Amino acid sequence: KAGVTQTPRYLIKTRGQQVTLSCSPISGHRSVSWYQQTPGQGLQFLFEYFSETQRNKGNFPGRFSGRQFSNSRSEMNVSTLELGDSALYLCASSAKLANRYEQYFGPGTRLTVT
Amino acid sequence: GENVEQHPSTLSVQEGDSAVIKCTYSDSASNYFPWYKQELGKGPQLIIDIRSNVGEKKDQRIAVTLNKTAKHFSLHITETQPEDSAVYFCAASYHDYKLSFGAGTTVTVRA
């Protein structure tokens, strides 16, 4: 079974631009969560989608948004990029089966804002 | 919100020795505690997890223990090998999809 895939793997953007990252979950998984990883703040929860609905959101500004499609693929968008948005953005998928909630991470998208 | 503290931040062990990483959490409602291993250039890989109704779980050379009263849990790696070198993260969750992570432990296994 293929794992979680994220595209693109690397991205360089300029301050003020916007960016869209994509995540394809493991086949059959309906939950997708997004995390930001930085050396200073570590791994921080951004938001989670299940059946196209955002169920929870972390403490990030409104510039960070996301969505999920009917095939469970998810995108996250960051508008008006700031230097501090440079990070590894990780997507994790979960099957949400009875009593099994393991999250499996993709390789991440490395975003550099200059 | 949940706050997870992880110690030590770095750990160097001789090949064949054991490694222990400890985490504490703040929210007594947390009931799911996974451990992840992250190698350079890769995403975190789930290596073992434990739920609050279990005190200990073992998978080959890896074991996790949980003390709900003290709100701490630990990862034990026995007979360490060079391929165990990586960054290890503990996490805690009440809503299973929202993981709160520790800061990570860089483990180096010396040959």
Structure description:
The complex is a heterodimer of chains A (114) and B (111). In chain A, strand 9 and strand 10 form a beta hairpin. With 114 residues, chain A is an all-beta fold. In chain A, the strands form 2 sheets. In chain A, strands 2, 4, 5, 6, 9, 10 and 11 form a 7-stranded mixed β-sheet that branches. A 4-stranded antiparallel β-sheet of chain A has the order 1-3-8-7, with no helix packed on it. The mean pLDDT of chain A is 94. Chain A has strands at 5-7, 10-13, 19-24, 31-38, 42-50, 53-57, 64-68, 74-78, 87-94, 103-105, 109-113. Chain A has no helices and 11 strands. By secondary structure, chain B is mostly beta strands. Helices cover 0% and strands 55% of the residues of chain B. In chain B, the strands form 2 sheets. In chain B, strands 2, 4, 5, 9, 10 and 11 form a 6-stranded mixed β-sheet that branches. In chain B, strands 1-3-8-7-6 form a 5-stranded antiparallel β-sheet, with no helix packed on it. In chain B, a hairpin with a 6-residue loop joins strand 4 (32-38) and strand 5. Chain B starts with a strand and ends with a strand. The mean pLDDT of chain B is 95. Chain A binds chain B through residues 4, 31, 33, 35, 42-45, 48, 50, 55-56, 58-59, 90, 94, 96, 101-108, and chain B through 1, 32, 34, 36, 41-46, 49, 89, 91, 95-104.
